[in-house]
């Protein structure tokens, strides 16, 4: 269904600071790039919030019938410890610390990232490219920027010339900064510094002999600057100008500002039509962050193994908690807030169960068409999930009244209500019904136990053809039987 033809979506564009009507470059198609994680440690819940905001946005666009190419990268090289192009590569540092290969660090934390996102029921992106897989593309862009006069080479490193760029373009337009103010507020460069200006940033850094992550280039062995990978991968997969670029608010400057400068210097085109920024998750009023240690990991929340929360919370409850806030607002994590979300989540799931068993009679008081329109209106208004959720609870109120015979519903209204509520909860918000999933797994266990019993009887009767068939068919379905002293157990792959 091409719902997008009848729905007008407005998004907050960081570039203009305004809510704008979203018009894709090609009708019916969307190109969206989101900066992915730097895989040198486990993702904390703050990271998950940003990715969840874009998962919800991706889901809504898909629900509206858009064909979305969603690119979310993996940063596996080039991200230095600080933004001033100094310090070690975060991944190389971890590899040295643990005495393993950098690619082992990358593999370990990429797997953790995927597992965590899967627990939260994320949809995988269409393409998940890596920085190290696009070194050639990055070198080509540097050559181009050098040829156009917006970069300079010093001693095997290449820097972007921000002052030169600002003569013809506007450096700072995304973050609302002026280059003159930035220059006035920074201390002068040290004599040994290679940069012409402190605001210049590295496109390519020469690798010192001890630097293990290195690639050959026209300027000698080195590695790409962090900002460049996103320009290379977004241009490659989405084109020189694409619809949406997202990331956390903290990436607006310098990362996204530098991405704009690189792309404009290379293509003379603005790379992105809509810049979307997700706000931060805080803990005790401060940003969750890997470096300060003020954070909670999803696994600590699911297991309850932490000093901050009174009990464990399921992935679906945590997801529901996060989507109860607008993606552009700051959200603080607390036990009270999670407890409230857990209650709300249970009410919602209970109402879903009740909805199935409602007896339809005749048209009632609840105007489902108007309610459905309000759900779309909320999501069309910059993906306003808290308002959408308040509409879902309005439906819960009516479901409960109908159940108590205090209101009525017609068969067609019931069908529309079921369809709409399922679409918004499961498809758009991506919230899973965990008790139903547990129910499914209990049913499966029951069926396997029954087959084990039938297999045992077959064996007692020496009907080995049947007993082997049961075992082999189960293996084909990924279910292994294990015969032991205590009887037969099973495991599901
Ligand atoms: P990193 O792996 O540090 O590059 O971060 C991955 C993503 O997580 C980026 O988009 C960050 O903006 C985002 N992020 C980091 N900390 C938080 C936080 N406390 N709340 C929300 N998003 C965050
Ligand atoms: Zn990026």
Task: Explain what the structure shows.
The protein has 493 residues and is α/β, with parallel strands linked by helices. It folds into 3 domains: 3-278, 3-Layer(aba) Sandwich (Rossmann fold), CATH 3.40.50; 282-428, Isoleucyl-tRNA Synthetase, Domain 1 (Orthogonal Bundle), CATH 1.10.730.10; 434-492. The chain has 16 helices and 15 strands. The chain has helices at 45-63, 90-98, 102-119, 135-147, 162-168, 179-184, 226-238, 252-267, 298-303, 315-323, 335-356, 368-380, 385-403, 411-428, 434-460, 464-476, and strands at 10-13, 18-21, 29-34, 67-72, 151-154, 157-160, 201-206, 222-224, 242-248, 272-278, 281-283, 286-287, 331-333, 479-484, 487-492. The radius of gyration is 27 Å and the shape is globular. It starts with 9 loop residues before the first strand and ends with a strand. The model has no long low-confidence stretch (mean pLDDT 94).
Task: Name the features.
493 residues, alpha/beta, Rossmann fold, Isoleucyl-tRNA Synthetase, Domain 1, 3 domains, four-stranded parallel sheet, four-stranded antiparallel sheet, 16 helices, 15 strands, 46% helix, 14% strand, globular, binds adenosine monophosphate, binds zinc ion
């Amino acid at each position: 269904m091409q719902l997008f033809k009848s729905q007008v979506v407005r998004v907050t564009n960081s570039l203009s600071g305004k809510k704008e009507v979203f018009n894709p470059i090609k009708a019916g198609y969307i190109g969206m790039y989101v900066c992915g994680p730097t895989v040198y440690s486990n993702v904390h819940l703050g990271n998950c919030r940003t990715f969840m905001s874009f998962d919800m946005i991706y889901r809504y666009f898909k629900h509206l019938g858009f064909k979305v190419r969603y690119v979310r990268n993996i940063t596996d090289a080039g991200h230095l410890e600080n933004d001033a192009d100094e310090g070690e590569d975060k991944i190389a540092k971890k590899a040295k610390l643990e005495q393993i290969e950098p690619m082992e660090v990358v593999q370990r934390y990429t797997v953790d990232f995927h597992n965590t996102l899967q627990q939260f029921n994320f949809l995988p992106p269409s393409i998940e490219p890596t920085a190290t897989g696009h070194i050639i593309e990055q070198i080509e862009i540097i050559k181009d920027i050098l040829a156009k006069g917006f970069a300079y080479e010093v001693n095997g490193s290449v820097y972007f010339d921000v002052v030169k760029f600002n003569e013809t373009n506007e450096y700072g337009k995304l973050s609302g900064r002026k280059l003159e103010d930035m220059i006035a507020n920074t201390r002068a460069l040290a004599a040994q510094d290679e940069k012409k200006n402190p605001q210049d940033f590295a496109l390519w850094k020469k690798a010192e002999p001890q630097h293990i992550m290195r690639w050959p280039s026209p300027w000698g062995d080195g590695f790409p600057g962090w900002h460049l990978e996103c320009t290379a991968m977004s241009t490659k997969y989405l084109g020189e100008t694409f619809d949406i670029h997202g990331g956390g608010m903290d990436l607006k400057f310098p990362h996204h500002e530098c991405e704009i400068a690189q792309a404009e210097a290379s293509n003379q085109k603005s790379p992105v039509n809509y810049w979307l920024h997700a706000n931060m998750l805080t803990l005790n009023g401060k940003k969750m962050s890997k470096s300060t240690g003020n954070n909670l990991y999803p696994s600590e929340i699911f297991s309850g193994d932490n000093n901050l929360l009174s009990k464990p919370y399921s992935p679906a409850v945590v997801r529901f908690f996060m989507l109860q806030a607008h993606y552009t607002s700051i959200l603080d994590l607390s036990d009270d807030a999670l407890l409230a979300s857990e209650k709300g989540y249970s009410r919602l799931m209970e109402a879903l169960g009740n909805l199935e068993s409602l007896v339809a009679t005749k048209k009632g008081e609840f105007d489902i068409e108007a309610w459905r329109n309000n759900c779309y209106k909320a999501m069309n208004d910059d993906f306003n999930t808290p308002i959408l959720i308040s509409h879902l609870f309005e439906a819960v109120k009516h479901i409960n009244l109908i159940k108590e015979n205090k209101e009525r519903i017609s068969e067609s209204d019931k069908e529309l209500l079921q369809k709409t509520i399922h679409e918004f909860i499961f498809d758009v918000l991506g919230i899973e019904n965990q008790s139903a999933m547990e129910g499914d797994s209990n049913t499966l266990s029951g069926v396997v136990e029954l087959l084990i019993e039938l297999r045992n009887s077959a064996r007692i009767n020496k009907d080995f053809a049947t007993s082997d068939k049961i075992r082999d068919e189960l293996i084909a379905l990924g279910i292994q039987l294990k015969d032991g002293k205590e009887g037969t157990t099973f495991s599901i792959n």
